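Practice problem: predict the structure.
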Amino acid sequence: MDAVQTSSPARRTVLMAGAGAVAALAVCPRAAAASAATEAVPAPAAAPGAAGRAAAAAAELPLRADRTTQGDILAGSRKDQACLLLVRFTDPVRARRWLAALLPELSTTEEMARFNAAFSAARLKAGGADPASLSATWTGLSLTHPGLRFFAGRDPFPAVAPGSTAEAFAQGAAKRAEALGDTGASGPDSWLFGAEQEEPAGRTVHAVLSLSADDPAKLSAAVARHRSALGPATGVVVFRQDAATLTGTLRGHEHFGFADGISQPGVRGFHTPDPDTGGTVQGKPGTRLVPAGEFLVGQEKIGQRPAGLPAWATGGSFQVVRRLAQDVPGWWEQARLRLAELKKTGAAPAEATETWVAARLVGRWPGGTPVAGCPLAEVPGPVGRDPDVALTYVDDPQGWRTPLFSHIRKGNPRDGLNLAPGRPPLAPGELDGRRIIRRGIPYGPAYDPARGAGHGADTPRGLLFVGYQADLVQQFEFVQRRWLNEADFPAGRNPAVGSDPVLGPDSPITFETASDSGSRATTLRFGRFVRTEGALYAFTPSLPALRDLADGNLDDSVEVHAGTVLRAGDVLDAGAARLVLGADGDLAVLAPDGSRLWSAGTAGTGHDALFGRDGEFTVRAENGRIVWSSGTEGHPGARLLVRRDGGVVIVDGDREIWRAEDRKAAHPE
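Answer:
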């Protein structure tokens, strides 16, 4: 029985279509689709010296050799079996001992990257089969805001600016739930974890211990060992979430049956750049390289923007954990009902199936092939080939090939985001700051009622979503709230596009197809068949930061990372002092009441301020001329800190080499 309210189809005529666009949607013979999947975008011929350039690029990937950051952020555990233990502690002294003992087991980026490269090479050589000879077990640790406060004995932020990622992290996922669409059946009142953030709450989560392995027996042994170690540390498992890759034909897919985790961002300094473009990942022409600072705090961000976070965050990443329950039969029944409506209006071809509809909701066929290049049926490409090699939306502003409401287009508009109908799309680089690294894995058995008890609709199943980013507000929350949930995104269309029919709220969506007079819009009602059952905001610290926490220390100085540029209006607030670049161009340190504690004396001449990689802090005029300098050049690796006690310093190791006390420090003539 259909429990979803439907509405009558609405029609409208909009911009006239070019003949090529209509033809591309109307006809895509299977042979032509196969050609598009395997031949339309051949691999570029190797230019002279390309091999040498590629080798040089591979040698310049410092993040792959990083042994201080946790591996799941950039490399990914990529294991078939996983278990998350959500833990609460009661005795900080014993908990710190536990943390100190855990440190040697935490998996680093270097370990995971090296293993994953060997595993992928062996898998490709075996034609897609997993190599039985390679196996590993990985361990990761993240801490919530209450967890950081518990281990450190004080609040981890010296100051929390309204609207900042620090504010989002401190408030936690439950307090942000309504703005993110987690209401009704998805509201915190029904969550299995994450609803409690304040102390002393019995189910407040302090730590997320992530364990993963190839072998279920090895994972089971690791879980038992870690649970045993938690006892003496006064650690209690508030919630345990087991997850595993689906088997058989659903391997690598989520429960609705679609390949998952395909479109991940490339990371500068970690992924090998294509020697011919420099801006995309080698072997994945459709994957842009994004500055690492968008995922890993302390690395360079887009536009060299300041992170504005404490020093303890350097080398880490904000983590989002969500348990997303999936109603598989309900979702597919809805696809069948909407197919009947589309056929009735002539918006779907007579031979279309429910999979044809579902593929448009997702933007891909179940095997991962985008519907953009193969609208009638899926024809997978060769093993190892990037399915997004030719994916583009720039010539599809109406969404005739990839609907504007489709999950992959709402979540990552790529080159096809028009801020208003008729306007040119934004350059893809303008959206790089919205990307998220996703580490999802299914939980629960596949829906297969023919197998009997435990495989039907009443058995819990869904996706364990884990995402990493350097800014919760500008990345995860922006995408979820402004893109996926917003019915008027892309904006300015009438009727509105509608929310994401996979993860968004109950919403009408506008299905657009080509017609002789332009674009025909059919309005369909889509219910919500993915429900949030738990959510957490956590932080995955670097190993040095965790080592400090094990000693009861936490460096909460706000850090200005090397390569960062401050622009007029930027404020770095450490509570007792704020480092600001004023609208008049003066670099200054202000007290909480706004009075000046120190000034570089650059009012009227300063344009921006750069903390260079050689340890020098400078204020520059608009033409790039240096108008003030800290005089600390020649100290690569130096750190610029705004301390809670009010001091603004540059340190090289343990030695202070500059302090904002005397404006006579260095004024270039």
